[in-house]
Amino acid sequence: MEMAETTALEKEVAALIVDALNLEDIKPEDIDPEAALFREGLGLDSIDALELALAISKKYGFKLQSDDKKNSEIFSSLRALSRHVEQNRAP
Amino acid sequence: MTVIPLLRPGLPVDTVAWRGQQPITRHQFQRDLASLLAILPDRAYVLNHCEDRYQFLVGLAATLLKRQISLFPSNRAPDVLAELARDYPQVYCLTDQADAKEVAAMPVVRYNTDADRGVAADPVFPVNQQVALAFTSGSTGVPKRFPKYWGGFVRESQVAGQRLGLDAASGGQVLATVPAQHMYGFVYSVIMPAQWGYVIGAERPFYPEDIRRALAARPVPAVLVTTPVHIRACVLDTVQLPPMDFILSSTAPLDAALAAEAENRYGTRVQEFYGSTETGAIASRRQAESDVWKTFDEITVSEVDEGFRVEASYLPEAQVLGDAVEIRSPREFVLHGRNTEIVKIAGKRIALGDLNRLLLAIDGVRDGTFFLPDSGTGLETRLAALVVAPGRNRAQLLEALRERIDPVFLPRPLRLVEALPRNATGKLPRATLLALYRQLEEKAAPE
User: B51, B146, B247, B369: most buried, per Cβ within 10 A?
Assistant: First the structure.
């Protein structure tokens, strides 16, 4: 299967996901930027969402909120999450 | 027959719930109740799937008025709900979610109170009316069922509220990070506030920042009903929360250092409840004072071979719980680690034996085991699994597991091995298993 091309920030966020969630058996470059992170895809759950929110707050200096527009969309894929980081990261 | 109202009557404040900064009055509740009642089907069982806690409350009142019993499955994995629909053909799902794929197995009724049907009377229910049927995962693979009655929920809320020092005269609000579909969330974020006249926070804040904003939105003394995972997330996130009356934590014992850190940072007390699906909450402690659990009024504990026995004036029968405890007196006990055969993750309890049975039932799996590694640095320690399945890969096995078990129990990692280190009697000593696991982890770690 051909994978969509990955940007530098997507690579960075993929590494953050693998590191924060102890997904030792997955390599950051194996995460398809378009594939689902929760359930069907990587199979992440609500505790992972909390862990990721912590890691993102530490690294990018902003806090995730549930009522952020389309929260489920933010976590829908590595690409969507990276876009959200791009738009909200502290300067 | 004694009847008891759902909502405490005659309160100084007329607000039932709060959504953001919007108060929801008792009159609105009575109007929504009449409206919802008109669209509910005549069925014996209901799965109240409403995420919004106020809508859950309206749904609970309406379904109870129709004498319907709420089912509380141990988790909401699609397979579990499909099985529930098979076992209870009379069940339907009441939901406020537009997209609830997991309930596809049963008829779905959307929460809707648009139609004007007048105003319903304040609902009251007989103490012997069955409210719920709660399921535990059971140790034999067959879920065990526990009928729950209105009088029991009311009495539990009263003795627990007294222990917590709730005050109906001054009131307050209850904000919860736990869902109403879990017994702890059901009793302590819905029934207890309703019985004590506390305002119910309709939302379910999830991230630390959500909790901060929900508390800040309403300048009323607040009780935060939550779990060790959320408390740890708040403390690690260095979020500064507005003042609270106290924090209530349950589903797993809280680490003493974390409890102290939370009390310090938020200038509040952290109360813990110990309980089970079988019994509801039965005891409390505040680690700043003692690690001994003190049972609520009307509850006594005693030692038996298989664990310890809990008796309560308001439980239909005594229950034996499997956790290892040291009984100090009929009203006091200390928890001694966990039963290693039962694990609890994200507030959900499951027998490792059940997980292993599900694993071994997967096509191509010859041998395999789930286990809980020693705790790491994350918010919660996850299960791991070692599996012997020649010809199957990790992704296929995870896919098969995902259909059968709640995602919180998915192994992380799942590692394929050639054989498990079983001893001569076929058993897997934990030390040997952990040694093999550590060896595999070292090999897998980056150079």
Answer: B247
> Structure pTM?
0.83
Q: CA B53 to CA B60: how far, in whole Å?
A: 10
Is there a common fold for B3-335 and B342-444? no
Evaluate if residue B191 carries a pLDDT over 60: yes
Q: Taking CB atoms and an 8 Å limit, are A47 and B207 in contact across chains?
A: no
Decide if A25 and B444 are in contact by the 8 Å CB cutoff: yes
CB B279 within 8 A of CB B269: no
B66 alpha-carbon distance from chain centroid = 25
Q: Provide the CB-side half-sphere exposure for B396 (13 A, CA).
A: 11
Chain A nearest-CA residue for B212:
A65
Q: Do B207 and A53 touch (CB under 8 A)?
A: yes
Superfamily the domain B3-335 falls into: ANL, N-terminal domain (3.40.50.12780)
Please give the residue range of the domain that contains residue A17.
Answer: 8-88
Pairwise CA distance, residues B297 & B282, whole Å: 9
Give yes or no for A47 touching B (CB within 8 A): yes
Place B267 in a pLDDT band, splitting at 50, 70 and 90: very high
